[in-house]
Amino acid sequence: MATVKIKGMRCGHCVNSTKQALEKIPGISEVAVDLEKSEASYKGDIDLKLIKDAITGIGFEVE
């Protein structure tokens, strides 16, 4: 699984929004978002730019 660090998540709603945004990307699967670690993990050979765009598009930063 690939993992990205996310800056700005503060609650369960943030986690759900991030998970939903990533699940919309074609070819991605098994998305897991961890609030305590401030990171998202996923399976799929996805261009990191698509991941970053999805996360920044909902108001968070990828570290």
Keywords:
single chain, 63 residues, Alpha-Beta Plaits, four-stranded antiparallel β-sheet, 2 helices, 30% strand, globular
Question: Care to describe what's here?
Answer:
By secondary structure, this protein is of the alpha+beta class. The protein has one domain (2-62): 2-Layer Sandwich (Alpha-Beta Plaits), CATH 3.30.70. 33% of the residues lie in helices and 30% in strands. The protein is built from two helices and four strands, in the order E-H-E-E-H-E. It has helices at residues 12-23, 48-56, and strands at 2-7, 29-34, 39-43, 61-62. The chain has a four-stranded antiparallel beta sheet with strand order 2-3-1-4, with helices on one face. A hairpin with a 4-residue loop joins strand 2 (29-34) and strand 3 (39-43). The radius of gyration is 10 Å and the shape is globular.
